[in-house]
Each structure stands twice: as structure tokens, then as C-alpha cells.
Design a protein that fits this description.
Layout: H1 3-16, E1 25-28, E2 34-35, H2 38-42, E3 46-49, E4 55-60, E5 65-70, E6 75-76, E7 95-96, E8 101-109, E9 112-118, E10 128-135, E11 146-150, H3 154-162, E12 168-171, E13 177-180, H4 184-193, H5 196-199, E14 206-212
Parallel strand pairs: 1-13
Antiparallel strand pairs: 1-10, 2-8, 3-4, 3-14, 4-5, 5-8, 6-7, 8-9, 9-10, 10-11, 11-14, 12-13
Length: 214
């Protein structure tokens, strides 16, 4: 698995409590939309939780970028079948850790907001990963204390490449890596003409809650 694929699978496992096995990802060589202004970006400043006990720090920068810093801690990996928690004399359960910083750029397109993730230490330069974001309770983006996160439908982007709707490559079978190389204009045409529920997984979004402001 490539560096960016590992990064995103680890993010999914850490923040969304999903397993690492067979994690498929879609990466983009180019982005669509317009970066949000610095005032909007500053609303993200602070510590947020993707799950109770799993805090991360959003630190805003400029030009639509902010840093996502995983606060150093071990996070238990959920095992199939559950089972009792280990006692004081038992060996600890396996854990995963996110190291370093992920840079994210928030962009707006057609009234919706998207977060583009990139690993600054990715030597393979696999491009950007994408999620759709929105604030809960009708609040402005970054306000209200709740952020909703939706993942991309990897299968739909694989289908688009196979049908010639988008340019790119698909590698692997289980745990596939879909790389979209289309230019910004082509991406925007695809997003406009394709129903949202086809390319974004709109079932229950992941909920991110603010713990404190900086």
C-alpha cells in the first residue's frame, strides 16, 4: 500500500473506527472549488473529537489551509467479536497511532464545502484525498461545535475512469487505489452532472465535535 493510501486508511481507522483491512482510497491530482477565506478557516481553530477520547487539533494557517494534528496517544483497535477489556496483568490490546501532521485545504464549490487532505511527507506524491464537510444545526461552516464528514464513493470514481468520464488509473483489487488525474474543469463538470449521492457516501455522516477553542 502506498504512503498516501496508508495515511488515509490510518485516518479512517483512527477517527472513524473502521478496520484497516481492504481499505480502498481515491486520490486526486487536481482539486476543484475555491479556497475559503481566512476568517472562515479560523472558525476551525481548537481541539475536536472524532470519537470520545480521540482528540485532534485543527490549527488554521492561510489561503484555505489548516493543519490537522493528531494529539499523541495510542488508540485501541476494535477487534471482531468484542470481548472483555484486558485486566491489569493482561497484555495491552493492539493500537494504532497517527504520527506527524496532515495539511488540509477547505474549498467551496456550488454551495458545498470540501476538505482536501495531503501528507506533506508523502514521497510518492499521490495527490489529494477528499471528504465533503458541513456544519450541523444550520450553523456557518466551522461554527456550532459540530462538523459532519462524508467520504467519497471509491467505486463510483473507479466506474467513471472505466467509462471515460474521468481520467486516471485503478490499482489493486481488495484495498484498491483509484487515482484521478483529470484537470479541475473536468472534475467540476463531473461533480455538477453526477448526482451527489452517487459520488459521496451520504449514509450517516461521521460527526466531529469541538472540545475547546484555542
Amino acid at each position: 500500500m502506498h504512503a498516501m493510501s496508508r495515511l488515509v486508511c490510518c485516518l479512517i481507522a483512527l477517527f472513524f473506527a473502521l478496520g484497516l483491512t481492504g481499505c480502498s482510497t481515491v486520490g486526486f491530482e487536481n482539486r476543484f472549488g475555491t479556497p475559503v477565506d481566512d476568517e472562515t478557516l479560523a472558525r476551525f481553530d481548537g481541539v475536536w473529537e472524532f470519537e470520545e477520547g480521540k482528540p485532534i487539533l485543527f490549527a488554521s494557517r492561510e489561503n484555505g489551509w489548516f493543519e490537522l494534528v493528531g494529539l499523541e496517544q495510542d488508540v485501541p483497535v476494535k477487534e471482531k467479536g468484542g470481548g472483555p477489556e484486558p485486566g491489569p496483568d493482561d497484555p495491552p490490546k493492539p493500537s494504532v497511532r497517527i504520527e506527524g501532521t496532515v495539511f488540509i485545504q477547505v474549498r467551496e464549490f456550488e454551495g458545498h464545502y470540501y476538505a482536501w487532505l495531503i501528507d506533506p511527507e508523502d514521497e510518492e506524491d499521490e495527490g489529494y484525498m477528499l471528504v465533503r464537510i458541513s456544519s450541523g444545526f444550520g450553523a456557518e461552516l466551522g461554527e456550532g461545535g459540530v462538523l459532519l464528514v462524508w467520504l467519497m464513493n471509491v467505486d463510483r470514481f473507479e466506474q467513471a475512469i472505466g467509462a471515460g468520464e474521468l481520467e486516471g488509473t485503478v490499482k489493486g483489487e481488495e484495498g484498491k487505489t483509484v487515482s484521478v488525474t483529470s484537470k479541475q474543469a473536468a472534475l467540476e463538470r463531473f461533480v455538477v452532472k453526477t448526482p451527489l449521492h452517487e459520488w459521496v457516501v451520504l449514509e450517516e455522516p461521521f460527526i466531529v465535535r469541538r472540545i475547546s477553542k484555542r
